[in-house]
Design brief:
Blueprint (H helix, E strand, L loop, with lengths): L8 H21 L1 H26 L4 H32 L1 H23 L3 H18 L2 H27 L1 H10 L6 H40 L4 H12 L5 H16 L3 H27 L7 H35 L5 H7 L8 H13 L1
Helix pairs in contact: 1-2, 2-3, 2-6, 3-6, 3-9, 8-9, 8-11, 8-12, 9-10, 10-11, 12-13
């Protein structure tokens, strides 16, 4: 005799939110361990086709994985070398930048004193108090510990990638063993769709980042802004953070233009150039290169980006979109959770069924 239970809707919703809370809370507590593993998993999925290609060419499995991981590390080191060389040039002119900031600060204080009838000494006293508070809150020991942890995570990342690629079949079989055999086709479809989403999203994101970096650097170079290359690359990297990164990326080149140029015109031109690049990125690059891979609507994307920032900082902001896309794929393949998958998606009905139900109810009452 089979017994079926009719679980109330409010109980289902409560269970879903409770599970989501515990998952996020666990990730918050163990982010130092889990974040490198998640990043390594994404990178491993991205590099997996290259590994499979080498294996199909009769190259050994271990050697194929080792070659691909080393190539990825070399590419990253090359990019870091280019960025560090530009940062070194920026560091050499730091005294001039500091002098310019000092002059700018004096001018701003004088303008504020004249405009709002406040004494310059009061404004300077407030600025000095703020600076001293910031210095007191800056703990060298904590920052040194954070740097050591970051270096350790960077060193472990290639190791994680190698091991995940090596134990790929073991991990996939483990996931299948968690479900009954009649669920295996659906689980396999979820895994395949997840792999396609991650690969296409990361490839599209990289292409978009290269194009934005090129446009940023070219625009700043035409305007004659110093350190155009490093500012363009940094702006493209920050722009990877959905919706928020593009706004933050404008601030740094505007500050450099304001400090290094005598006229405010250069700062305004930098702002206009970046607004144009953001327009091209948001209306042409993202819809055709990135958003077509990840079917998550903008409202959900902004919310999960903010949640990712609250839980894991910048890394959480970057991971929020692909993780949400994976969750949507899972929801779409589980019948009771399909409404939640629909809520996360970007398919907007032309007309709401709510209006249809209302009209039907009115006609019934009449």
């Amino acid at each position: 005799m089979s017994i079926s239970y009719n679980i109330p809707f409010y109980f289902k919703v409560s269970a879903i939110f409770l599970c989501a809370f515990f998952i996020v809370f666990t990730f918050y507590l163990g982010q130092q361990i889990l974040l490198p593993v998640v990043f390594a998993t994404l990178i491993a999925i991205l590099l997996n086709p290259v590994v499979d290609f080498l294996i199909s060419r009769k190259v050994g499995k271990i050697l194929s994985i080792l070659i691909v991981v080393i190539m990825a590390v070399v590419v990253v080191i090359g990019v870091l070398y280019i960025v560090s060389s530009q940062v070194t040039m920026l560091k050499e002119t730091f005294p001039q930048l500091k002098d310019k900031f000092t002059i700018t600060r004096i001018n701003v204080v004088t303008w504020l004193a004249d405009k709002f009838n406040v004494s310059s000494s009061s404004i300077n006293q407030w600025i000095n108090k703020t600076e001293s508070t910031a210095i007191q809150n800056f703990s060298i020991g904590d920052k040194l510990t954070a740097v050591i942890e970051l270096v350790l995570e960077i060193v472990l990342l290639p190791v994680y990638v190698f091991l995940i690629l090596f134990y790929k079949t073991l991990l996939l079989d483990f996931i299948l063993k968690l479900f009954r055999s009649h669920h295996h086709p659906a689980v396999t479809e979820v895994l395949m769709n997840t792999k396609k989403i991650i690969q296409s999203y990361l490839v599209g994101l990289f292409i978009e980042m290269v194009i934005v970096a090129t446009l940023n650097s070219l625009g700043l170079f035409i305007l004659g802004i110093d350190y155009a290359l490093i500012l363009g690359i940094v702006g493209a990297i920050i722009n990877v953070i959905p919706y928020i990164g593009g706004i933050v990326a404008i601030a740094l080149p505007m500050i450099i233009a304001f400090v290094t140029k005598d006229s405010i015109t250069s700062t305004i031109l930098v702002f206009l150039v970046y607004i144009l690049i953001q327009f091209i990125d948001n209306h042409y690059l993202i819809p055709r290169i990135v958003a077509s891979r990840v079917r998550v609507n903008a409202l959900v994307a902004i919310i999960v980006v903010l949640i990712g920032n609250a839980v894991c900082g910048v890394a959480g902001m970057f991971l929020s979109i692909p993780v949400t896309a994976i969750i949507k794929v899972i929801f779409d393949h589980i019948t009771p959770l399909k409404p939640w998958g629909f809520l996360l998606g970007n398919t907007v009905p032309t007309a709401s069924r709510f209006a249809f139900v209302q009209r039907k109810r009115k006609s019934t009452l009449l």
